[in-house]
Inverse folding.
């Protein structure tokens, strides 16, 4: 892992929002932890300016393009994929290591080949785009093989940021779900990856599962004509990352249990099971790579019961970058050893027992908001599953609750997507009717974007 200086690392800050007051016998403490990085690689979502040679973060990017036979139906998909990959290559910062992988039932090095990475400059970008013109569709789909090749290539370079972009139009039919799951477990922590499904013949849970495991984003691009703009945005975001492998380190005192740690903005992602031990009563939760951005996390802990008037520190949250990468980092953390770089931000979660019923029963607005957003994601996914299974009453109830939650929280984007699947009679009460005819792209878009959240209204 590279050593970071203040010149190329965002400055991190942390704010904690909670109601620290508990009634007598109360044990559950909830807090929203807002982490903000400023002064790093991005400004208003645009790419970072090119760094002079030898300055700023070094990065490696692998572009994985589905070349299976279905990409020729219709032919606009393959053309769109080539154009999108070319646009992403144009967005590479000078000095970035990169490779293009063609994915079928096997993974092939499209550019530069020879088990190596190219270094982005005017000449290599042009060579890569020439190589893209030779891409043709044919064969099956084994996404795990694409990810394994990406992992080998990305980790052959001594860089700070390692990132993949994966495009598929179909289901992973030429390897078992167990093989893909094993690949994702092996790649987790070694590089981040954004995943995109083009058209409507791919499996939402498969693509979102890849992005979730590798701490990236997932989305649908129903129309291949929109791929180039989407790929450009993804690459600009990747080029804006300044520091990788950032972890939330949560310390809790004796007798305290962590019930869950979730990212809740900009999307819902449960990090609880991804904990690696980091010394006595401390654990690290991976958050991936950061540029200029802000994210919110929901921490829920169970504390020992205490008497009225007593107070305690329920948790201490900090940001660290464990030194060493991937599996080496995890093994160090499990031993409670290994060096870390502390990024300076820290937040304290408190518990105070009181007989003031107004204080102890008040729900913090941030906690209430994100509890609703997490429920919103859950009921959308459950409602769509029930709809597919033919349980229309159950689907109506769940999707009605989703409409109600979206309305209360001001999540207008999700409300618009829901309105393409149900007829809204009364948003405030969640009264809806299932539409008899729903475009497959609309249903898939709702499912894919169900975890996207909105920030608390100020």
């Amino acid at each position: 892992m590279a050593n970071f200086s203040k010149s190329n690392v965002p400055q991190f800050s942390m704010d904690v929002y909670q109601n620290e007051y508990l009634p007598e016998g109360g044990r559950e403490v909830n807090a929203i932890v807002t982490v903000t990085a400023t002064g790093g690689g991005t400004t208003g979502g645009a790419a970072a300016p090119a760094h002079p040679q030898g300055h700023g973060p070094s990065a490696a990017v692998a572009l994985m393009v589905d070349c299976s036979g279905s990409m020729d139906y219709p032919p606009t998909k393959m053309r769109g994929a080539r154009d999108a990959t070319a646009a992403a290559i144009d967005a590479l910062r000078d000095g970035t290591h990169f490779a293009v992988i063609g994915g079928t039932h096997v993974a092939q090095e499209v550019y530069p080949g020879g088990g190596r990475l190219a270094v982005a400059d005017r000449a290599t970008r042009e060579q890569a785009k020439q190589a893209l013109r030779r891409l043709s569709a044919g064969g099956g789909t084994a996404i795990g093989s694409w990810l394994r090749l990406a992992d080998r290539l990305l980790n052959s370079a001594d860089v700070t940021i390692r990132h993949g972009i994966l495009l598929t139009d179909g289901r992973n039919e030429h390897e078992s779900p167990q093989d893909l799951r094993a690949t994702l477990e092996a790649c987790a922590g070694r590089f981040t990856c954004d995943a995109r499904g083009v058209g409507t013949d791919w499996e939402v849970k498969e693509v979102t599962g890849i992005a979730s495991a590798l701490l990236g984003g997932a989305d649908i691009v129903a129309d291949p004509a929109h791929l180039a703009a989407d790929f450009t945005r993804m690459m600009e975001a990747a080029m804006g990352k300044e520091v990788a492998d950032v972890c939330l380190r949560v310390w809790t005192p004796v007798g305290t249990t962590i019930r869950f740690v979730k990212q809740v903005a900009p999307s819902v992602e449960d990090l609880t099971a991804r904990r690696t031990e980091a010394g006595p009563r401390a654990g690290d939760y991976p958050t991936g790579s950061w540029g200029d951005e802000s994210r919110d996390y929901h921490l829920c802990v169970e504390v020992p019961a205490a008497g009225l008037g007593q107070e305690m520190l329920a948790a201490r949250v900090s940001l660290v970058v464990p030194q060493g990468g991937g599996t080496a980092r995890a093994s160090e953390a499990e031993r409670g050893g290994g060096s870390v770089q502390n990024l300076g931000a820290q937040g304290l979660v408190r518990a105070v027992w009181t007989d003031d019923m107004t204080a102890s029963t008040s729900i913090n607005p941030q906690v209430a908001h994100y509890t609703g957003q997490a429920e919103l994601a859950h009921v959308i996914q459950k409602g769509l599953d029930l709809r597919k299974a033919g349980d229309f009453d159950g689907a109506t109830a769940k999707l009605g609750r989703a409409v109600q939650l979206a309305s209360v929280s001001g999540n207008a984007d999700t409300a618009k997507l829901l309105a393409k699947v149900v007829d809204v009679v009364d948003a405030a009460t969640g009264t809806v009717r299932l539409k008899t005819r729903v475009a497959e792209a609309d249903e898939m878009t709702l499912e894919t974007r169900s975890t996207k959240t909105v920030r608390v209204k100020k």
